[in-house]
Design brief:
This protein is mainly alpha-helical. Helix 1 runs antiparallel to helix 2. The longest helix is centred in the C-terminal third of the chain and has 38 residues. The radius of gyration is 19 Å and the shape is elongated.
Amino acid sequence: MYHPLVNDPRKVKDQELEDKIRELSKKYHLAARMGQGGVCAQILSALDMYKEELDRRRVEAMENLANKQNKDLDDLINVD
């Protein structure tokens, strides 16, 4: 998803990404309590973009970890 007012989330560090998600979540809940539906929609758009990037990074990290572990086991199993 693309939000025109948000910079590319791929260029943001992990900690900054988590901070932005936390900040936008607070702003979303505040806007929702005030009945600002249009603002909520815009915040959700940006929030979804950051969450998707964080999920992508976590999946990539898990895949890298799994690949590393699989390579370590190759030397332990001898099939003759």
